[in-house]
Amino acid sequence: MKNRTWMLDVLDRAEEGPITLEKEFDRVFVAQGIADLVAKYRIRIPKDPYIPFDDDLADRVFQAGLDLAVNAGLYCISTKRRITFSRAEIERRVADFPGQITLGEGEDACTVRARRPEDAGRIAIVGGAYGTPVPEELFVPIMLSYAQEPVVDWIDNATLSTVYGRPVRGGTCWELLACWEEAEKSFEVIRRVGRPGLAIGCAETSTSDLGELTTTNSQAFRPIDWHHTCLSSELKTTYDQLNKVVHFTRTGCHVHSFCDPIYGGLIGGREGMAVSIVADLLLMHVVHLASTVNPGPSHLRYSASTHPDMMSSISVALQATNRNTKLLTSAFLRPASGPGTKTILYETAALALAAATAGCAFMEGVQSATGTHEAHCSGLEARFVGEVCHAAEGMSRQQANDIARQLIARYADIFDDPPIGRPFPEVYDLRTLKPTTEWQGMYEEVEQELVSMGLRLA
Amino acid sequence: MQSDLGPMRAELLAILETGDSSAGVEWAQRALASGIPPLNLFEGCISPVLDEVGRRFQCLEIFLPELLESAEVIQAIMDNEITPALKASQEKRTAQGKVVIGTVKGDLHDIGKNMVILMLELNGFDVTDLGTDVAPADFIEMAQKGKSDIIALSAILTTSLPHMGNVIELLNGFGLRDQFKVIIGGAATSQAYADKIGVDGYGRDAATAVELCRRICSVSPATRA
Predict the structure, then answer these.
(1) Which of B21, B126, B160, B200 is an active site residue?
(2) Cβ separation of B110 and A131 shorter than 8 Å?
(3) With a cut of 70, which residues of chain A have pLDDT below it?
(4) Are B63 and A269 within 8 A, CB to CB?
(5) Do the bridges between strand A428-429 and strand A434-435 make them parallel or antiparallel, or are there none, so unpaired?
(6) Please, which residues bridge with residue B91 across strands?
(7) Sign of the torsion angle spanned by Cα atoms A388, A394, A397, A402
(8) Catalytic residue flag (residue B129)
(9) What is the phi-psi region of residue B222: left when phi exceeds 0, alpha when psi lies from -120 to 50, beta otherwise?
(10) Min Cα separation A304/chain B (Å)
């Protein structure tokens, strides 16, 4: 009932908030607003250390992000209004969040809990192809490769690129049909690995609201699953997203919300991105009623979230949020490299260390090769992330930074021509669903490198 | 680039770095008063400085807010000085070409598309923005209405890619394929996908999109302003 009342308030404000031209919102509230706050709070985030350990900096970034959330609000593209909340309302809503939720059910349930920087508490691991396009005949084997990994606490689906042999066209009837197929195939996956209560991140074939709304019901995706909404860059929402918020709230689902602030875009560089991320995380919780929140982000040129120029900014923003709230935050591991390469492991390990020691509650990935190359994804990447994250529980930021620096030196120069690796059938045996000897060998070699750098892998 | 305009270019670049529109307008007034014809000032000074700003943005030596500030200064210079001076002198600035652009159906992302628009406009293209979630047939209808040279399609989401192919199919089906060049861009796209669906070019980022449009329009027989 509390969520329903709050949801009505959000919807009212989307209809009654200050009318603003979108261009003015971009220029005045986002670009200039962020620049002013970076100056006001004297925020400076060098590229190195990649994992900063300055609590005062993190707290100043949090205050700047809170100011931005109050000053700008979320812009509703559909109504041309800003959805705004006062500082007291945002602080109260965030403070009221219990700091934990449970996804899945029965023996497969996972309770994810808020963590603080350098926290020894367990990080939940979400494994999946995360919207990487896959042809329908590969959906089940690929998702089985994730769901079969014991370290994976819940899964997030691939996106179907075909349905009944036809290409899926977003925003049309094909999206609905494909989302129904995604649901059926997902349940086959969790049944076949003997984890019927495993939560499913869904519906990844839903690019508009149509697919999500259609398949969140008693015959498809369940309230115990992990249902997605997102912001548009920067600090914007739409009625498509609010439609989902209404449906998920009324069907008793937990809402996950993510965004994609763009490094080098309207928010500027590292300092602006950190401030923007904090505001994004707060507003996704407040406006999208999100139980779990993820900040992306993307590099303007390379898309990847692992670029060294962005690492310290992501770390500080997550430290800021996790020091000052009990929100359930995550990092999104979107490397430029793909499966069957060592660099994908270096990239994911570096960002996973940055996020784990920044106090993320859960880790998401891997969206290999930035999720744009068909079927370039495999479950081994998620196993790797799980092992790295659990080894980083309780680790100091300084130690993590030492390791991250060595990892970044191994991949910093790949971005202009990233090694996208090979598609799933070339890195896994489709009959046994085990990694090929070559891919497994690379994995083990990188594990040994990490051990030699000081990471205590189980 | 004319060597005698070198100091003027350096001065303009410094003004763009400050984002001071009134200083930009004063700079143009001084240049025109010194006898530099407005077309020479644009082509020999403003245009190469814009190239330099674009290069800096492409390398992320500057970020989008700084690019927007530069665009505002240039717009003020054009509106207040160059365009009126061109009219008075009977000189004509050649439009680079006409582009109709949008994010394809099922996709609401627009920040990349908007950067391309900004860069194209700065470089003298006449751009029509159709926004996001644009149906394939709407691209063609608007390109016909506006007598565009280029249809530019953007997509971030992989499930929106088939709509790009639909644009080509419709152009072929209507017998219009030879009237328009079609280019694509956005995180979901690639040169391989461009080749697969048979478009005329792929722009990895805003700067390469401008280069692509320049190249296309330099050989396209389409109408110029």
Answers:
(1) B160
(2) no
(3) 1
(4) yes
(5) antiparallel
(6) none
(7) negative
(8) no
(9) beta
(10) 10
- Residue by residue, DSSP assigns B108-171 as ---HHHHHHHHHHHHTT-EEEE--SSB-HHHHHHHHHHTT-SEEEEE-SSGGGHHHHHHHHHHH
**Which among A31, A168, A301 has CB closest to B65?**
A31
- What pLDDT score was predicted for residue B225? 34
Distance from CA of B150 to the nearest CA of A (A): 23
Which structure tokens are listed for A78?
Answer: 């559909």
pLDDT tens, B215-225? 998 865 444 33
What pLDDT, in 10s, does the model give residues B109-144? 888 898 899 889 888 899 999 999 999 999 999 999
Residue of A nearest to B205 (CA): A301
DSSP letter string, A78-147: TTTEEE---HHHHHHHHHHS-SEEEES-GGG-EEEE---TT--SPPEEEEE-TT-EE-HHHHHHHHHHHH
Q: What is the pLDDT of residue A237?
A: 97
Q: Which residues of A touch B67 (CB under 8 A)?
A: none
Give the pLDDT of residue B220: 55
Partner-chain contact A172 B105, CB within 8 Å: yes
Contacts of A449 (CB under 8 A, 6+ apart): none
pLDDT given for residue A57 in this prediction? 98
Has residue B177 got a pLDDT over 50? yes
Whether chain B has a CB inside 8 Å of the CB on A351: the answer is no
CA count, 13 A, side-chain hemisphere, A33: 23
pTM: 0.91
Whether the Cβ atoms of residue A61 and residue A68 lie closer than 8 Å to each other: no
**Average pLDDT value over all residues in chain B:** 89
B182, pLDDT greater than 90: yes
CB contact under 8 A, B105 and A372: no
Does A203 lie at the interface with B, CB-CB under 8 angstroms? no
Three-state DSSP class for residue A329: strand
Q: How far apart are CA A310 and CA A307, in angstroms?
A: 6
- Given an 8 Å threshold on Cβ–Cβ distance, is B159 in contact with A27? no
Calculate the CA dihedral of residues B132, B134, B140, B142 and round it to 10 degrees. Answer: -60
CA distance B31 to chain A (A): 30
Q: Is B160 a catalytic residue?
A: yes
**Could you read off the pLDDT of A22-39 as tens digits, one per residue?**
999 999 999 999 999 999
Chain B: nearest CA to A399, how far in angstroms? 30
Provide the residue type at A259 as one letter: C
CB distance A372–B158 less than 8 Å? yes
Please name the residue that has the structure tokens 């030196």.
A409
Structure token pair of residue A341: 């390469």
Q: Would the CB atoms of B159 and A178 count as touching at under 8 Å?
A: yes
Q: What is the pLDDT of residues B25-37, one digit of tens each?
A: 999 999 999 999 9
Instruction: Kindly state the average pLDDT of the residues B12-17.
Output: 95
CA–CA distance, A301 with A443 (Å, rounded to integer): 28
Residue B163 appears among annotated catalytic residues: no
Q: What is the pLDDT of residue A1?
A: 55
Do residues A411 and A347 lie in contact, with contact meaning Cβ atoms separated by under 8 Å? yes
Among the partner-chain residues B68, B108, B111, the one whose CB lies closest to the CB of A262 is B111
